[in-house]
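Lab meeting prep.
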Amino acid sequence: MHIPELNTPLPAAPKRRESRLRALDGLRLIAALMVAVYHYAGREGDVTRAWGGSPKEQFPTLHLFATYGCLGVQVFFVISGFVICMSGWGRSLKAFFASRVSRLMPAYWAAVLLVTAVFALPMVTYKALSPSDTLVNLTMLQYPLGVDRVLGVCWTLWAEVRFYALFALCVVLPGASRRRVIMFCAGWTLAAAITQGAHQPLLDIVFMPEYAPFFIGGVGIYLAHRDRKDVYAWGIVAVSFLIGQHYAVADLWNASNPNAFAHRTTLGIVLVVAFGFVAVAAIALGWLNWANWRWLTVAGALTYPFYLVHEHLGWVVIHELHIGLGLPSAAVFFLTIASMLLLAWLLNTFVENPLTPRLRAALAKVR
């Protein structure tokens, strides 16, 4: 089999691959719903106050499957690797920065302020953070600064920001090319492996070995999207999956803990990780082009604001519906998800749609 040189120009992508990948929007929403199911029925912690007891009691069967929903984060990271490589290809550093900031920050600012305001209400049992900590949260740097978080999911945004920074410095700034992206993936994979063995906190922060394989795998899938015969691209995807499933199993397998909320199996974890890689690859290869419904674009637009608000505000809704109104658990579960999707639509319509293009334009004009 002929293996192309690293600097061989890529063939022009077929026009059908240049169109919006609506199935990817649908996969985004699936990943967000996985995380929501985990937060509502797949773990203990603060959500037990909302239910008035452990979700194991509310959902004797569902909780066994919901505990795998946390892997929706890994699916998100694979999607992010694909999307960031696609959106960063051919862009200047300023355009890339403007795109990322305008995409993340408006809904994030609104979510931080909204959760803080709701938690400050006297009838809500959860406590709002101090004004100082809330202000730090607006920077999205609260996690590395050791400040309490307004949004429980913001730790994943910190991982995303570090990925954006690495990609911007190593690929976007010098100019994206196939060779440069391949070297970026290879270099990051090696650096992450060295970091794991070095046990140096600074290296852990920069190269985040437990999450790197998922971002790198998504980047490799994008290279395969451009040229499905690219052996290097598929090699990146394969190595990333093999390493990624290792970290997922190491972090989430808890069969040895008799007090665990639920016991995930190693096979179950590997299968969910494989689902993330296979689903993004299937979309990249055009196998799901038939899923071209317009409502998927709407689903993709709702995913980010839904992801931001669903956990903490979901606790409030669950408590009011289940404890306050006495509605059955199953009804409360679906009504909470529906209410968070409605709130996400409101944030997308009245916050993201007007502010995102204005912020992007303002940042793009800055010299």
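Slide two material, second protein:
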Amino acid sequence: MSAFSTQLLEGLDVMAAVVDTGSFGKAAELVDLSQSGVSRAVARLEARLGIRVFERTTRQVRLTDEGRRFYEEVMPLIGALAEATGSAAGDAQQVRGKLRVNVDPLFARFILAPRLGDFMDSCPELEIELRSKDELGDLVADGFDVALRFGHPQSSSLVARKLFDTRVLAMASPQYLQRFGHPTDPRELELHHHKCILFREPVTGKPFPWEFQQRRKKLLVQPKGMLTVNDPGTVYSTCLAGLGIAQLFELGTEEYVSAGQLVPVFPTWSDHRFPLYAYYPSRRYVPRKTRALLDFVGKLVD
């Protein structure tokens, strides 16, 4: 038992604060210590563990590889201990604390934000920080509890859990269709007669091809367009303005369709779906606050 003490627990609290804030100075404010006190607590923790926990430069503080492994293994256990303590105190159903979420910008703006009030009402003691980011990044080193991203998961040490699929539909405004006509086959989009709003893939720098699905039949199209953008929000706004046909997620566009501002162009080619995944550090323990968010998001397409 000598290797485990309240000093270690205090050191873990300080370590978590540094990870969450990204600096010793901000961590000091969070745990009510001086900056030198934070440095001493981290030094004591490193001495006890026999590893370097942080790489420190004049501009940033980052977990070392050993520090990251330790954090990923130990912090979920500390969280489980805190949650069990709360349950023993008659607090089993309460979701509280701070939840930091790395979220896909498109999902944040058009899908999550309009519905977030219901989740906040159900968890009145939970403080939520949403950070819209184009890339997943280093979830642990950046201090996030969970990430929500569209697209199929890549190889990673993180747990990837699919929350739902949403249909991907080609849409246009009534003004565009009145001016350029209503195509009846997706392959017509490869002709110069129609104008498509293209979205640039971050990895290749080239516009994404468009996939259409009709039951088991799939069709890949290279649409023609004069406008290429790299911001999902701009795809929506330019499509609504009548500048072209765009591929949009069905989830988040229902109100535009109901109001007659957007029209699905190929209703018989509407079976293509795209997933939303949640990413988090540990499969062994998922904090109650994270589980609450994932349960809420997973029900958005019910």
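Talking points for slide two:
The first helix runs from residue 6 to 21.
DSSP finds nine helices and 13 strands in the chain.
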